[in-house]
Amino acid sequence: MHHPVRVLFLCTGNSARSQMAEAFLRTMGKEHFAVFSAGTEPKALHPLAVQVMREAGIDISGQRSKDLTEFLNQEFDYIITVCDRARDNCPTFPGDNARIHWRFEDPAAARCSEAEQLGVFRRVRNEIRTRVSIWQPAILKKLREAGVKP
């Protein structure tokens, strides 16, 4: 395992879920994680993702959607897919990486009023924050146990 731990979050559009996960881990993990996100079919950053992350105290307005092909020749310790389509279409990356699947509802696909969709974005944001806040300290513990001082 590298230090900083290299993590790639993957989803289909890289417009919301993977962007939020990237921002949360970057914020919580500080210098111990090198965090990236990408999409199998990237779309523009969703404005409601920017809004709900700002509500959580994190500005992602400067982030951009990226195609996973930008990362195909890079090594990662963890590849985390946040939707089934990304999991099913995830290519092979070099190195000895662990693949993890965290399925979250796609808030951008919610068919409802904008106010209701904002609620879906908030719920998904909170689910992602919870998952990252549990996973990140476990990985740091694993590093310490391996003799790496994070």
From TrEMBL:
Q: What is its EC number?
A: 1.20.4.4
Q: Which Gene3D superfamilies match?
A: 3.40.50.2300
> Is Oxidoreductase among the key words of this record?
yes
Q: Keyword Transmembrane helix on this protein?
A: no
Question: Which EC class is the enzyme in?
Answer: oxidoreductase
Q: Which UniProt keywords apply?
A: Arsenical resistance, Oxidoreductase
Q: Where does the source fall among the domains of life?
A: Bacteria
Q: Tell me which InterPro entries the record gives.
A: Ptyr_pPase, Ptyr_pPase_sf
Q: Write out the GO MF terms.
A: arsenate reductase (thioredoxin) activity
Query: The Phosphotyrosine protein phosphatase I domain covers which part of the protein?
Result: 5-138
This protein's name = Arsenate reductase ArsC
Task: Give the originating organism.
Answer: Thiobacter aerophilum
